[in-house]
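FAQ

Q: What does a record look like?
A: Structure on top, sequence underneath. For example:
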């Protein structure tokens, strides 16, 4: 039976991209999907067959390039709460007469989605594009620890006050922020990584479905052809948000110039290729590349340790050299190192020599390659797109039975 699924997300590649294959699978199964997103992400969502509800945003998909501070981390929950407040009027109006059977939402927008679910008595389902959270583990708390956020930071009180006001404005005077944060005890969660990669994975109950990365071809990213030289491919990318790093990309050029590797660099739109100087024949530079295509052929991946990129690399068994750019990525990089799936360079440790040593080290590490083969198998067996769509359908059917 056809159902109506609504997806609510923030305008960030690392949050939208993991959902696209799932949305396409739901549409393929005959369901209707409405996806609330900004104009920037509308073409990618439309390509899945979903209906796009174009909305505004307080956020941007890129970062200004400065170091992420303790204050940045502390105020982030309030910034995301304000995104919920901005989206609320448009979503309440759109779905008031066309209520979804299931509301799937990114973890960052839980105040909005759980409020809407209560308002309409509709089931919700939480999406985790990074580490899941329970009483035993929280990536947000770990990022705060790494960043050095003070225990009594004023952002905490400001967040609680605005959350309370947000609920009252939407007709929930008797509901507290703690009520919404606690949520429905039966609400299922989709986690786009494996239980083995999750910190404290054994402490998460059956509500959490660790489906791993949900991958599909991304024609909107264009094409790429492997080099005819047959040299090992080293793929370099800092993702889409924290890539305003010309000095990093110049260090990569210097590290691999004349070495027996072929380097593919994805540098984004904000760093002109000319800023990297004259490129050697074994280095190609693009604003963006079809990441899955490149990873199929890559022998090493130098990246920012974003969870999406990390899971995609592990899917293909590609060794990682992680250069995290923010505290949450520090947490992911720590897990990569802990499981022996690659090497980590701190932001202050990046030089041509350290990059070259790290890449040549992972290329030559037979034990690391054996661990990667095991991890790649676990990632592929996690269930991916089909398991995620099954979970969403089950949520809709359970609500109908009740």
């Amino acid at each position: 039976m056809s159902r109506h699924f609504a997806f609510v997300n923030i305008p960030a590649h690392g949050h939208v991209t993991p959902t696209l294959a799932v949305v396409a699978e739901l549409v393929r199964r005959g369901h209707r999907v409405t996806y609330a997103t900004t104009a920037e992400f509308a073409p990618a969502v439309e390509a899945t067959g979903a209906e796009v509800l174009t909305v505004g945003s307080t956020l941007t998909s890129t970062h200004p390039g400065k170091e992420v501070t303790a204050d940045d981390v502390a105020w982030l929950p309030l910034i995301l709460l304000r995104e919920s407040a901005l989206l609320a009027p448009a979503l309440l109006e759109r779905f008031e007469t066309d209520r979804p059977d299931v509301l799937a939402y990114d973890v960052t927008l839980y105040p909005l989605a759980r409020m809407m679910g209560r308002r309409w008595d509709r089931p919700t389902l939480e999406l985790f594009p990074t580490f899941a959270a329970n009483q035993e583990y929280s990536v947000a708390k770990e990022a705060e620890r790494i960043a050095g956020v003070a225990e009594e930071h004023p952002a905490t009180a400001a967040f609680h006050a605005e959350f309370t006001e947000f609920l009252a404005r939407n007709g929930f005077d008797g509901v507290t922020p703690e009520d919404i944060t606690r949520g429905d005890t039966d609400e299922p969660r989709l986690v786009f990584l494996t239980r083995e990669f999750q910190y404290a994975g054994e402490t998460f109950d059956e509500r959490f479905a660790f489906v791993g990365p949900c991958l599909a071809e991304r024609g909107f990213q264009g094409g790429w052809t492997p080099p005819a030289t047959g040299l090992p491919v080293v793929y370099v990318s800092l993702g889409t948000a924290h890539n305003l790093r010309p000095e990093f990309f110049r260090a990569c050029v210097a590290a691999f110039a004349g070495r027996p590797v072929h380097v593919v660099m994805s540098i984004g739109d904000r760093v002109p290729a000319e800023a990297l100087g004259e490129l050697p024949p074994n280095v190609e530079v693009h604003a963006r590349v079809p990441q899955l295509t490149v990873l199929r052929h890559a022998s090493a991946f130098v990246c920012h340790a974003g969870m999406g990129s990390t899971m995609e690399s592990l899917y293909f068994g590609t060794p990682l050299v992680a250069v995290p750019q923010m505290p949450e990525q520090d947490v992911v990089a720590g897990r990569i190192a802990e499981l022996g799936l690659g090497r980590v360079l701190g932001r202050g440790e990046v030089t041509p020599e350290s990059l070259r040593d790290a890449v040549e080290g992972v290329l030559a590490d037979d034990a690391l390659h054996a661990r990667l083969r095991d991890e790649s198998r676990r990632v592929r067996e996690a269930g991916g797109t089909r398991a995620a769509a099954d979970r969403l359908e089950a949520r809709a059917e359970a609500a109908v039975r009740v």
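Q: Is there anything notable about this one?
A: The longest strand covers residues 32-37.
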